Structure to design on (317 residues):
């Protein structure tokens, strides 16, 4: 059995954008990431109790893991948790592709274990899940999660692990005010009932729910997210305005309200952090308690916007 139950902070920190090539101006969001800048992010996060770092072998094809390890240098391994992923599409053809990908991740991150190891998507649940068992037995993996899996696939993975005395302890899916498929499919309820941590990603819908963008101030042209979201911005205005008003009462912008909503739903949001100032928003979000009627109102406005933000990579829930 796993030694102890998975415990996580209120918010997990996403490092997808840390996998940029390192060339100035080549940031996924046009961000210019520097070593000192990311070190500052780490220091501020760690000192505020945000100690779970989420990455993946395929983020920048290993670069995110390497950069993260460098930024965490000097911290005791017990002071932070590492969450990374096995991606089926990137699997090699050896006898043990899962173990091999994990070894490469461990090497890049300079550690002998990961706290949370995910199967990144459900291509071949019956094929890949059994390969996690020896990794759990060896202690190289402390806890297992599944990402972008539907109810049936979560149950199958849990059954396979269960036969060896382990279990699925976490689920990571796209979940936001605009995309509540995991709730409608009963996955949130399943997680509550089975003491499984639900991690929500894309909580801010790549910036569309931060309140910083609107019909008059669209997302920067030429980016993928502009293509996906700019056409929706007029329909999101009522929602983001209301989020802004709810936040104003609490000295917080709309983005923090989106994060607070995800926390209020019993989930652990994964928020991408590339600037130390973003940590202030997480501190605020962690402290916001939304009233039941505020949650209901925000969800009604989100439903009325009637937009579909399911990613091309996501299976239907």
């Amino acid at each position: 059995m796993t030694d102890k139950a998975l415990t996580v902070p209120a918010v997990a920190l996403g490092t997808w954008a840390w996998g940029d090539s390192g060339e100035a101006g080549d940031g996924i969001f046009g961000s210019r990431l520097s070593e000192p800048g990311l070190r500052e992010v780490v220091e501020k996060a760690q000192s505020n109790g945000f100690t779970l770092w989420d990455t993946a072998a395929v983020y920048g094809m290993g670069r995110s893991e390497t950069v993260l390890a460098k930024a965490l240098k000097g911290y005791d391994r017990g002071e932070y948790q590492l969450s990374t992923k096995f991606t089926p599409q990137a699997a090699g053809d050896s006898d043990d592709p899962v173990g091999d990908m994990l070894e490469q991740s461990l090497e890049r991150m300079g550690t002998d274990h990961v706290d949370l190891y995910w199967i990144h998507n459900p291509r071949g649940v019956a094929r890949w899940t059994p390969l996690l068992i020896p990794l759990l037995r060896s202690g190289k993996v402390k806890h297992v999660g599944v990402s972008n899996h539907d109810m049936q696939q979560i149950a199958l993975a849990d059954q396979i692990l269960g036969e060896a005395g382990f279990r699925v302890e976490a689920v990571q899916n796209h979940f936001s005010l605009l995309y509540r498929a995991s709730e409608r499919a009963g996955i949130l309820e399943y997680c509550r009932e089975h003491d499984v941590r639900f991690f929500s990603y894309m909580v801010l819908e790549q910036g569309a729910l931060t309140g910083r963008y609107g019909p008059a101030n669209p997302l920067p042209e030429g980016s993928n997210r502009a293509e996906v979201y700019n056409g929706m911005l007029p329909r999101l205005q009522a929602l983001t305005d209301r989020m802004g008003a709810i936040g104003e009462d609490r000295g917080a912008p709309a983005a923090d309200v989106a994060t607070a909503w995800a926390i209020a739903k019993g989930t652990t949001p994964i928020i991408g952090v590339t600037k130390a100032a973003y940590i202030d928003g997480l501190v605020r979000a962690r402290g916001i308690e939304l009233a039941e009627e505020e949650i209901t109102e925000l969800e009604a406005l989100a439903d009325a916007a009637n937009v579909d933000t399911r990613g091309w990579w996501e299976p239907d829930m």
User: Anything to note?
Assistant: The domain at 12-174 is CATH 3.20.20.100 (TIM Barrel). The two ends are 29 Å apart (CA to CA). The chain has a mean pLDDT of 93. Strands lie at 12-14, 52-54, 81-86, 114-119, 141-147, 168-174, 197-201, 268-272.
